[in-house]
Amino acid sequence: METIAVYWEENIKTYGIRKETKLCLVQMDILPVCLVELGQQLAELGQGETKVRLILAHHHEPGLLRLYMVFENRWQGKLAEFFSRPDLQEVSGRFLLESPVEMLNFHGPHFGDRYGIADMACDALKKENIRFMLMGCSAASVHFIFPEKMAARAEKALGSVFKAP
Question: How far apart are CA 49 and CA 59, in angstroms?
Answer without folding.
Answer: 30
